[in-house]
């Protein structure tokens, strides 16, 4: 199968999930499925996107922003050409697995169905927060190991041609629509409040290169943040000197990579990290992992295999 994954990713989590899809799809070659996977990162800096008509299976990935899909992802769906009944799946990453996030794809699914995309599955992969607070290393390791298991399971299902009912209801669309509208317009307005702290900034220009919306410009050594911000957090998360001030969200800033592939090998970090008696904030994750354990067990997949 020729597979294309179109991915929007602010700080690399959804891209890392896309890379897992590539890894597990291509590994299936050993069992006879000759898969090749291309990944296209959605950004104003990327060249023209590969034509979905040249592929057998299409994956579309995005991070959940305020229970919705981010603006560049929705706009990308609008830009996609029409196809004839192409098998398509959606994968989304977010900082917690609450079912309140379930409606985030409603708008994109509506656009895609109209263009002939046959939505056969939607998967939600929990990854460490890139905003609000930083997950500790053990929690991030836990998330990343489960991401491996869940993506591996999904690749097997897609290889077998399985499809599932992807729910889309008028009520869900109506619930999510105003939040998406507010998020989109607020991000643009608020983006100009971002600033580079001149005392910390080393003028490396990483933020300018990272921004998927080309929203950061430099004039006379001064960094200017324009009106096209989509709050992806790529600039402030990736800044090597933690020099970017993020306006009203200053207490929610997360800076610096989680180094997920190093964490997975760190034997000093307990795994599993979220036992059934987990307390405090970790209670929010129990249901997601309980449901994941059930599905993995049914598929005969042992999560410890991915450590
Ligand atoms: C503006 C913004 C809003 C977010 N809203 C949510 C949310 O509603 N629910 C959630 O679980 N995570 C939320 N997150 C966390 C991200 O979805 C999560 O960290 C995701 O894995 C980031 O993916 P990326 O690195 O591909 O951008 C939000 C992050 C940002 C920056």
Keywords:
307 residues, alpha/beta, Rossmann fold, five-stranded parallel β-sheet, globular, binds flavin mononucleotide
Could you describe the 3D structure shown?
This protein has 307 residues and is α/β, with parallel strands linked by helices. The protein has a domain at 2-172 and 286-306: Rossmann fold. Helix content is 35%, strand content 17%. It has a 5-stranded parallel beta sheet with strand order 2-1-3-4-5, sandwiched between helices. A two-stranded antiparallel sheet has the order 6-9. Strands 7-8 form a two-stranded antiparallel sheet. Strand 3, helix 2 (71-79) and strand 4 form a beta-alpha-beta unit. Helix 1 (13-27) packs across helix 4. It is globular. Bound molecules: flavin mononucleotide (FMN).
Question: What gross morphology would you assign?
Answer: globular
> Which ligands does the model contain, each kind named once?
flavin mononucleotide
CATH class of the domain at 2-172 and 286-306: Alpha Beta
Q: Report strand order across the widest sheet.
A: 2-1-3-4-5
Number of strands: 9
Topology:
Elements: E1 2-7, H1 13-27, E2 36-41, E3 57-63, H2 71-79, E4 86-94, H3 106-114, E5 117-126, H4 137-159, H5 170-191, E6 194-196, H6 206-210, E7 216-219, E8 222-225, H7 234-238, E9 244-246, H8 260-263, H9 283-298
Parallel strand pairs: 1-2, 1-3, 3-4, 4-5
Antiparallel strand pairs: 6-9, 7-8
Helix pairs in contact: 1-4, 2-3
Bound molecules: flavin mononucleotide.
Question: Gist?
Answer:
This protein is an alpha/beta fold. It has helices at residues 13-27, 71-79, 106-114, 137-159, 170-191, 206-210, 234-238, 260-263, 283-298, and strands at 2-7, 36-41, 57-63, 86-94, 117-126, 194-196, 216-219, 222-225, 244-246. Helix 1 (13-27) crosses helix 4 and helix 2 (71-79) packs parallel to helix 3 (106-114).
């Amino acid at each position: 199968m020729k597979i294309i994954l179109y991915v929007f990713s602010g700080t690399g989590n959804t891209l890392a999930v896309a890379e897992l899809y590539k890894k597990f799809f291509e590994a299936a070659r050993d069992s006879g499925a000759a898969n090749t996977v291309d990944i296209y990162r959605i950004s104003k800096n990327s060249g023209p996107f590969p034509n979905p008509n040249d592929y057998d299976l299409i994956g579309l990935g995005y991070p959940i922003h305020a229970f919705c899909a981010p603006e560049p992802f929705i706009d990308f769906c609008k830009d996609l050409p029409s196809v004839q009944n192409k098998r398509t799946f959606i994968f989304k990453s977010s900082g917690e697995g609450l079912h309140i996030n379930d409606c985030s794809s409603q708008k994109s699914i509506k656009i895609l169905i109209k263009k002939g995309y046959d939505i056969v599955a939607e998967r939600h992969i929990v990854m460490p927060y890139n905003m609000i607070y930083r997950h500790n290393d053990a929690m991030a390791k836990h998330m990343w190991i489960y991401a491996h298991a869940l993506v591996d399971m999904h690749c097997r299902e897609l290889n077998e041609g399985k499809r599932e009912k992807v729910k889309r209801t008028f009520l869900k669309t109506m619930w999510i629509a105003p939040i998406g509208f507010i998020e989109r317009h607020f991000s643009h307005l608020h983006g100009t409040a971002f600033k580079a702290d001149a005392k910390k900034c080393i003028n490396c220009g990483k933020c300018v290169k990272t921004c998927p919306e080309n929203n950061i410009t430099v004039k006379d050594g001064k960094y200017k943040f324009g009106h096209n911000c989509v709050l992806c957090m790529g600039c402030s998360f990736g800044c090597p000197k933690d020099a970017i001030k993020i306006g009203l969200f200053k207490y929610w800033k997360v800076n610096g990579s989680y180094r997920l592939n190093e964490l997975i090998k760190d034997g000093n970090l307990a795994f599993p990290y979220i036992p059934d008696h987990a307390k405090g904030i970790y209670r929010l994750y129990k249901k997601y992992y309980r449901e994941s354990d059930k599905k993995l067990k049914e598929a005969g997949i042992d999560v410890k295999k991915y450590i």
